[in-house]
Amino acid sequence: MSIEVGSIVEGVVSGITNFGAFINLPENKVGLVHISEVADVYVKDVKDFLKEQDKVKVKVLSIDEKGKIGLSVKQAQAKKPEEQPQREQRGFAPRQQHEGGGFQRGEGFRSGGGDFRRGGSRFGNAGTNASFEDKLSRFLKDSDERLTDLSRKTDSKRGGRGGGRRR
Fold this sequence. Notes:
By secondary structure, this protein is of the alpha+beta class. The chain is built from 2 helices and 7 strands, in the order E-E-E-E-E-H-E-E-H. It has a 5-stranded mixed beta barrel with strand order 1-2-3-5-4.
């Protein structure tokens, strides 16, 4: 079996580093599984997922001109359609839509008025289907209005625009 990009092969873990794991492949070749390709969840330490001499199935992601082989363990694993999303597995309550058009976490979640995680709070319901550019322009417009209001309030306390204080 030849090693080609996109193929799934079986190998043996030959070494573990802080950035990934080296895998001995057929035809006396060695590839690297980067830490980001070890599992579908956050990997702080590769040793939590792999040990030396483990047999693993890996997908060949790349082979460069120098012969370096990039591998992935997580892409070689078949996805199960009945799997729950990671957030629910970790005990997070599912997000529920509230009347403001944004989303709110399950029971017990309370936020202040300026919580950036709540969609549609300051910018109305138009933010849910708007493009990034539309959201950005709305944000900039709102920001300019707030700065203008703030500068008016502070200028009136100083006695108007221009010239500094006189003694």
